[in-house]
Amino acid sequence: QPVVTQPPSVSGAPGQRVTISCTGSSSNIGAGYDVHWYQQPPGTAPKLLIYGNSNRPSGVPDRFSGSKSATSASLAISGLQAEDEADYYCQSYDSSLSAWVFGGGTKLTVL
Amino acid sequence: EVQLVESGGGLVQPGGSLRLSCAASGFTFSSYAMSWVRQAPGKGLEWVSGITSGSGGSTYYADSVKGRFTISRDNSKNTLYLQMNSLRGEETAVYYCAKDFLSSPYAFDIWGQGTMVTVSS
Q1: Which residues of B touch A (CB under 8 A)?
Q2: Residue of B50, B60, B111 lying closest to A46 (CB–CB)
Q3: What tens digit of pLDDT does each residue of B82-113 get?
Q4: Which 8-state DSSP code applies to residue B90?
């Protein structure tokens, strides 16, 4: 079982806004470690979407935003587009495991 | 263009060994931490191992591979390696090489296309 948990799936219609949660504990997100988000369309390698809780690498549209609070983080996607359909993963560091950890992933379906 | 190209995957019997390579180009390889991340068929991402920048990089391993896998880097060849011994069936996965933002593992900003490792008799 991943130490950081995500909902298995979310969905939304084109143009809508969706959020994906990432819930951790006092040994990872709650300990102050940064959260990063990745997008993985089917059959492709993951792509960094958000780093350091809320920062976008160059080239990532501002429709994607991240936030962090206490022991959890969230990824928000506004103005949903068909091309946003993918798996999304959060990632942080866990001090109990001394390891970098990924959430279980969330499949986004654009209706 | 910043690029990572993995190689060395294939079919191996349980208990066998395999060495993965990751050739880097388009950036100063020695300045950044590197990691291996795997993904079993239909499953999520799992961090496997990481190494800090420089020539005598510190190494880090997931508990599941500690003592069996060894990560290393050759900065003169811009290449990252993962030596995998005593492989198990549940380690069948696509293995990705990933470049870090920083000199120590933090967030992975560039990923290779992955190399498939199948552990089966």
Answers
A1: 35, 37, 44-47, 50, 60, 62-63, 96, 101, 105-114
A2: B111
A3: 999 999 999 999 999 999 988 788 999 999 99
A4: G
